[in-house]
Amino acid sequence: MKWGEAMKQHYVMPVGEDDFRQVREKYYYVDKTEFIKELIDSHAKVTLITRPRRFGKTLSMSMLYYFFSNKDVEANRILFEGTKIEKAGNRYMTDQGTLPVVFLSLKDIKEDTLEGMLAGFATEMQAIYQSFRWLLEGEILYSEEKEAFEAVLSCKASRSELQYSLKKLTAYLQRYHGKNVLVLIDEYDAPIQYAWDYGYYKEAIVFIRNYLSSVLKSNSALDFAVLTGVLRIAKESIFSSLNNLEVDSVVSGAYWDAMGFTFEEIQKMAADFHVTEKLSEIKEWYDGYNFDGQEIYNPWSVVSYFKQNCRPATYWVNTSGNAILTKMLQQAKPSQCRALTQLLHGGKISAVLYEGFIYDEIYQNSDALYSMLLTTGYLTIVDYPDPYVDENEASMRLPNREIRTLFKQEVMRYLSSLDQDSDLLRNLLRSMLRGNAKDFEEALSRFLSMMVSFYDTAAKESFYHGLVLGLLTTLMPRFEVLSNRESGYGRFDIAIFPGKNQTVGSLLEFKVAEKEEDLPDKAKEALAQIRDNVYMMEFENRGVHAVWQYGIAFCGKKCHIEAANV
Q1: Number of structural domains, the chain?
Q2: Which distant-in-sequence residues (6+ apart) come within 8 Å of 282 by Cβ?
Q3: Given strand 46-50, what is the order of strands in its sheet?
Q4: 7 lies in some domain
Q5: Residue 420 confidence (pLDDT) above 90
Q6: What is this structure's pTM?
Q7: Are residues 424 and 550 both part of a single domain?
Q8: pLDDT value of position 418
Q9: In angstroms, rounded to a whole number, what is the distance separating the alpha carbons of residues 140 and 173?
């Protein structure tokens, strides 16, 4: 059976659909209901699950809502026919439709002012209260509670009333049903990230801390709660004194396969669509995530891949909530720039993990950058921290081809200054590959003047090496860019080997001059080193005979280039 025939059997991929009912009724579904069983077997009073964006968090929360909600019980039960949770037996299905559930998402509260954020919360709570408007009928609520309820419905609640509106709603529902309430909060950290981005974090965190803590801590109406987000905000910042919190992250936790696809699930999808020959391609592009030691595929990208007739591409674009990461990259040290560049060559980064983000300290710790890249999905863990070592250090790498491509486009973009002057970068690369040393020198000098601080150049040759290497990574994969490799009688600094449909390579050697007037001599010395150490040997071994050789000398924000052609 071919792809088109499989599609006719309603094998339609739910790209962008995060409502569980819609997915079950209209689309191809990967059965994740075992997550419900795991929650029933053992759940904390409050569970926080952090995953990168577009990893299926909202769909998972929607699934929990439809299973536990005591509204439309019979209609919802149909959604679980034939699933793993139903097959697990009556012990679990007896919990279906038994709880009053409050399900809300904070992902759309992305405001640039405190007033806008509060208005966003007011709108969200208005919609939630509207779904429970029937509580106003009868004598369940006291007169003053009805007034407070009406205030939320009309978006006229005071800041204090709004702050405790979620907790009050759980109390009303518990009183009506005689059962404690399940609270589901999706993307809990979205408003916090935007508050930090736009400079009103301290004011926002007071409101959000009270909003969440009031419903999650010492709330007699709460059965249990599940929260999702991208970042794990430190308890000191938001979950103060919340001792009943269990965190499930990309590093550790009990629900590693609740979001994202396992290899077994990928195998079944490939079989269902009759494209098992694509398994290696799917693995190369979208596998590689390591959640608590378990292999996980990016769900958004895999679904998009099947939707697009198995055409590999970079479907996962982490476009929202990246302002913090951007600022961290802008403040990256030269050593971090070199480390990030090495990732594109299959290298690893070792760093101490800081999962609990305290925003006030986020730029003060250099390892926080790598933890942010890990949490947001750009990196994955290779080697987990040793429990017998004091520091929580782990090794990380890029997970797959998709992320390697996006990493070059997004994370390394600030190195090459693509947003500031894309023509400048193109001119630099073009002139280097064509042997135009004068234009190459001019373009590189402009980059130095734009991007480099005199404090950076204190790192001497290693800094310039890392900077140029970062610029040249944009040539990949058309060219192979290698750094510090043995060839002839020594190690060349950077070599650029031509790829398919390319014929000319380049070889770069760097020197640092103490004074500007020494730049020409140092550049000639670097060029002579290429010749004397026979660095061309690696090119000759590969059958590459046309190579531009560059001796490049740096002094502060100045450079000089000498060139030769072989």
Answers
A1: 3
A2: 266, 270, 297, 302, 305
A3: 101-105, 181-186, 222-229, 46-50, 245-248
A4: no
A5: no
A6: 0.75
A7: yes
A8: 39
A9: 9
